[in-house]
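Bench log. Compound arrived from synthesis this morning; before running ITC I wanted a structural hypothesis for how magnesium ion sits in the protein. Inputs:
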Amino acid sequence: MDRVKTGIAGLDEMLNGGIPAGRHVALYGGPGAGKTSFCFEFIYQGAKMGENGLYVSLEETADDIVENMKSTFPLLTDTAQLIEDKKIELIKPEKLDLEEVANLLEDRITSNGIKRAVIDSATMIRLAFKSDVEYRQTLFEFLSLLRNLDVTTITTVEATSARREEMRFDIEHFVMDGIINLYNLDREDRRVRALEIFKMRGTDHSRDLVPFKVTPSGIKVYVGEKVF
Ligand SMILES: Nc1ncnc2c1ncn2[C@@H]1O[C@H](COP(=O)(O)OP(=O)(O)OP(=O)(O)O)[C@@H](O)[C@H]1O
Ligand SMILES: [Mg+2]
């Protein structure tokens, strides 16, 4: 099976090599959990490996994302060059519309050979729907469109709770091929970042809750370590 290496330190080991190619993964997390940083690094590492990537931002402008990521990951010094060379593309669509996002993806795949893409966030799109049924239907149709394209995607979803035990199943849990959860766990006097692969269709994977850090050179997942 072809796999798409995330390039995030430790994560590919947990995924037995990477995300199965052509699959569509949801990345869950509360505010500040690290969703945007995680997704940006996924695109960045792909670009370094010769796979062009597209970051579709539905909330922040492309410039804001680039500025924030430069400050979060100051040691990824070639970010600006990769953007200039169109190995990384960042786009904020005008409308909050999944059909428009699908068209955008198709267009960039055809004209720039995009291999991996990020949609940040699905929650922005969901808010535009009056009913959950309508959203679920549209999300399902969106995924059907994506399955005809040669692309691997990560879509962020805002978790309603930062607490692991309060995580409830949402529409995306059932529709998406994979789920990765990011937590900002509450400890006595601090918060600890942790990650788990909750589901990944088509591959065996680690089921451990493991600590991770956002460092200047990228995200580090501490495989085999316990969360304290
Ligand atoms: N320069 C930095 N150095 C260390 N940590 C940083 C730096 N910049 C950001 N962070 C950490 O990363 C967090 C934000 O990460 P990120 O934007 O990826 O989260 P998010 O889940 O996308 O948040 P949101 O829900 O607001 O979209 C900050 O709250 C901060 O803790
Ligand atoms: Mg974000």
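What the model suggests: The chain is about 35% helix and 25% strand. The radius of gyration is 17 Å.
ITC booked for Thursday regardless.
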